[in-house]
Amino acid sequence: MNKKVAGPEIERLIQYLARMPGLGSRSARKAALHLIKKREELLLPLADALNEAAEKIVICDNCGNIDTISPCTICADPRRDPGMIVVVEEVGDLWALERAGVVSGRFHVLGGHLSPLDGIGPDDLRIGTLVERAQAGEVDEVLLALNATVEGQSTAHYVTEQLESCGVKVSRLAHGVPIGGELDYLDEGTLAAAVKSRREM
Fold first, then answer.
1. pTM, to two decimals
2. How far apart are CA 195 and CA 191, in angstroms?
3. What percent of the chain stands above pLDDT 70?
4. In the CATH hierarchy, which top-level class contains the domain 66-172?
5. DSSP assignment of 82-117
6. pLDDT at 148 over 90
């Protein structure tokens, strides 16, 4: 039997923290204790930041990114190449590509991947708005930067089919051996993709 060792406010804080990805109940308790211990430096500023985020954050009408303005900062940046749209599953993927600094085009966040078992079909993703953007005439290439999972690849195939009539080049990220990767530690799928994507030296 689980005995409650704190008041309802602290238990509520722990319960909400435990819902965060990567945090179980034990980690949530540790995080809650740390926040409470550092009340002035962490807990109160975090509460203010959460309130402000809840009030001001919006989803970009154009690409699906999150920002405090719509169109978002990336869509509004005139230095971005309007001829390329990079398609990602989630905003976290967009952030990863931005951190790497390897993309100069604009983005499109699908909001997930196709998953019939979970009841997620084409109408649940932002595929229709992607096709509309591709048909607008400014776009030359759509780069599918979707995860190398079964769901990610089936989503990539579906999106490719939907873009066929748009007259744009559709490309995808190369898959294979990562820099610094040792062959002995790689799974068979990664090795197969690396061999398939081989190129001349």
1. 0.83
2. 6
3. 95
4. alpha beta
5. EEEEEEESSHHHHHHHHHHT---EEEEE-SS--BGG
6. no
